[in-house]
Design goal:
This protein is α/β, with parallel strands linked by helices and 290 residues long. The strands form three sheets. An eight-stranded mixed β-sheet has the order 2-3-4-1-5-9-6-8. It is globular, with a radius of gyration of 18 Å.
Amino acid sequence: MVECFNPKTIAIVTDENDMAGRNIKTCLLRQFSFDKEDCFDNNPVYELEEGFCARKVGIYTSNTETIFCNDIDRAIDADLFIFATVHKSNAGIASLSVHGLGNWGDYADYGGRPRELCPAPAIFLMEGLIRLSELADSKGEAFDYDVVQEATHHGPFLSKPAMFIEIGSSEERWNDPNAGEVVAETIMHLVKLDTNRANVRVGLAIGGTHTTTNFKKHILAREFAIAHCCPKYALESLNEAMIRQAMSRTEPECKLIVLDWKGLKKEKARIVKILQDSGIVYERLDSLQS
């Protein structure tokens, strides 16, 4: 049994100009009982009525694009932040996704801070992926969204645990009420999630694709939960300090390193040497039973 991360307060955050965020917020307010209670950034704050769960839950709307809301946890008092937003992709693939936040390298073009990761809620990410998958499957073949957990990327930077849940990747999809309902229902599943019952290993994924393709079946089977993932395109930036940062900025405690062996490409020998020289135990994904 892992030591649980059990937030008492949860902030659901959108931004005023985010099409998917507006869609998801509309679905949340229509499907669940929220009351207007306060104001944030000159926008209404909606609080979940008592009785749905033991946690205090609020919906906040920012006038700043969410990925650039650095340190929003100083303005909003919450133990967990769930950002509900668009996902953008050049390929335009229809998707529902979850992921942790942060930048592996010396860049912050899309918010956050260079070489800084946010604390990531592994169990919430795992259960978010599972619930999105279940609800998407229940919609039938016509609901043609790929459900994925993405690698850790972009901002904002927060000191509190945070995750993104997104609809991608076109205006048509961002405004799709069916996708909005699926994400809204998933968020509400997460806000009442009993993490005390979690009995799963928590880990850091290294290597592979941005959409963590080879890890997905293991996460869906609850073999392990992944908080942060460093994909193959970011491996050149990975060093011992970033590995230890990723492990320390995981809720609950990260006790597992999983390598997508083929997905390490030319960085394989260097990454393995870092782990071995640092005394960090790892497992190969291709050696795990599924």
